[in-house]
Structures are given as structure tokens and as C-alpha cells.
Amino acid sequence: MTEVEKAPQRSARDVVLDVFPELMLHKGYNNFTVQDILKRAQIGRTTFYANFTGKEDVLKHSVGRLRDWLIAMAQTESSGGRLLFSYHFFEHIISHHQIYDSMIGRDDFFILERYWLRMLAELVGSELHSPKHTAAQRIKLELIVQHLVGALWNTSTWWLERKQLSAQEMNDYFRQMALPGLEASLKNL
Q1: Is the terminal CB of the chain with fewer CB neighbours within 10 Å at N or C?
Q2: What is the pTM of this model?
Q3: Is there a contact between 171 and 87 (Cβ–Cβ < 8 Å)?
Q4: CA-CA distance, 126 to 8, in Å (whole number)?
Q5: Domains of the chain, with CATH numbers?
């Protein structure tokens, strides 16, 4: 059996999600079409639409794939504590900096940013929300989540413009600034 025969087949969904960042880097989100995805992924239109409803659905699933990876990586952390995904988020940002660099400041950036912010809010919120919280506490928690997401996102974009610190240093500084305020806010719910 040859190496090609031994290699596991990747699903069409995975192939599309793998080529999506390449297209974003080379063309920008607004400047490529489903046809460009089909060509790069070497799949047919029927196969594409069996897996996705359109280009924005690919974006949604791409961000979902990142979210799932961040959750999995945070679960491998032995240090315990809150926001353990943050180091892996910074690692992701720096390892994909060419894509992020090419997007910041473009007209289509706001479309992408909306999905990333939503993802970060899900990650942070899942750590903080509990069914035991009252309606008033849930509102305060949502404010805390939005504050942390804004801090994490703005720290990331600041970092992308400079690239003078490692992912570990960025994570350490972010956590030093964010966690004391988070813990104090949670005590005052």
C-alpha cells in the first residue's frame, strides 16, 4: 500500500476550512467568492452546499473550529484558574499574524471581528455564567464578559501592530491586568 493509500481522507468540510484562511490572506474576505473556495478546495458546488450555506457560514465554522481548539487546549492546562484559553489565543494570533495583519484596517475587517468577538464572549461567558445567578447578576456578568473580551481583543490588535513580546509575555501581562479585576468584580455580584 502506498503512502497516499494509507493517508486518511479529509472531509470536504475540513478541506474548505483549511483553504479558507489562505483565501482570506491572499484576497480578503470581501474579494473572494464561493467559486474561489470551490477551486482552491477542489470540490464541487453540490459538495460545498451539502456542508455550508455560503461563504459566511464557512467563516462561522472557521471561528467555531478555532473556539473548539482553544477549549481543547485550555483543558490540557494543569495550572487551573480562569481564562486558560488566553495563552493559546495569543499563540494562535502570532502564528497566523500574516492573516491578521492583512485584515486589520480593511473594510471587511468588521465582518470578521464580529465573529471573533462573539467567540471570545462565548469562551469567557462559559467560564463565568451559572444557572444559580439571578437576573441582576447575569446582567453584571455580561458586562464583565464584554469588558474582558474588549480588553483581550484590543490587547491582541495592539500586539499585532508591534510584535515585540512573545505570546507568553502577552498572556502574562493580560492576566496580570485582567484577573484581579475579574475576581474583585465576581465578589461584588
Answers
A1: N
A2: 0.86
A3: yes
A4: 34
A5: 3-187 (1.10.357.10)
**Long-range contacts made by residues 184-189, C-beta under 8 angstroms, separation at least 24?**
185/140, 185/144, 186/128, 186/144, 189/133, 189/137, 189/140, 189/141
Summarize pLDDT for 134-178 with one digit per residue, the tens: 999 999 999 999 999 999 999 998 988 888 899 999 999 999 999
Give the residue from 77, 111, 97, 85 showing the smallest Cα distance to 157: 97
Contacts of 70 (CB under 8 A, 6+ apart): 85, 88, 89, 92, 123
Residue 21, amino acid: P
Distance CA 101, CA 93 (A): 10
Does residue 5 have a pLDDT over 60? no
Confidence of residue 102 (pLDDT cuts 50, 70, 90): confident
Q: Which three cell numbers stand for residue 141?
A: 456578568
pLDDT at residue 3 is higher than 60: no
